[in-house]
Amino acid sequence: MTRSKKTAQTQRFIELVDDAIDTITLAAEQFSAGLNENVVNSLCDGAIISLNMFAVSCDQLSKERNKNALKLGRKRVHDRLSELESKNIKVYELIEPHRNFMHAVLDGQKNLRYSTHRVVPGMDKLFQNPENINRAYGDLIKSTQEFDKRQEAMLEPETNKKLAAQHQAQLNEYDSNDNKYKTSSRSKKGKAKVTDLYYTQSGKASKFVDSKANKRKKRQQEEKDAMDEDTFGPEADIYDELIKRPFMNAVLLLSPQMKWMDIDEPIPCKILVPTKDQRAKQNKNEVKILPCYPNNNCTLNATLDILELRVTEIKRIENKYIKNLKKYSMNVPDPALGYKSIEEQTNGMDLDNY
Length: 354
Description:
The protein is of the alpha+beta class. It contains 15 helices and seven strands. α1 (about 5-30) runs antiparallel to α2 (about 35-65), α1 (about 5-30) packs across α8 and α3 runs antiparallel to α5 (about 95-105).
């Protein structure tokens, strides 16, 4: 990684720390203000997402040995929380489990991410999934297709030079107060129970599901189904035509009128083919899709009218998305979409008839 990109990465991490603390404190502030419980619960959902994102970023920086970024993150957390303690002690005390989590992550504790998610009543149709949290937090988990212009600005020579100077000044302050920042961040409490991250009684009493356990159970069931059942049931539905395609790639036609997770532009997705038993329980007018990275940790139900199925258009959007992803994202998986693009699958196949 070049020095300029490392500087931009460090600045983005500092800003992520600010985003995380802002999100966490917002939930506590609104609870203190007596806001509607459903809204507070949704804000708490967002706070958990922000903690998970913070943990992922710290883990990635640790793997890349970007110690300076972690130092600056530790300093930022200390300074922001110290300021909060002096200005609003009630909120500061309310977010104790969140503070302990951030300190534990910065101290190098692993496997702290929450895989348990609250089941939100009334979430159905396109947004039916316990992992799809209130879209007010789209700015924290939004698709990298909505690339922030600030990311590009960070790489501009003059801006990058100023950021590097600011980081060095902050590092000098950190190193000259090493014990202050290290001792203040130590926490042996680490990860609290997920219910401790909710302030309302309805939030604490909510139904929570473990996505990892569910995925494991689903995989085991699918393996069992594959051994003794046909993949598709006898009833004809929209999958009958879809399975004739050489691949299951598609595009979810999001727009300003139909947003998801604050994304308002078309994004690549993959159509998931169900087993016979699974399809029997599903709406025959809908298909299940997997959004592309970085939102490929959930599935959605979609009708064909909000999917682009023309190969040339899918391929164009996939290639554009991957290009931007590699340009702006710090961590691009392989394959970049979280599944193989049409280009990766076809290898020169004649697509004129599709």
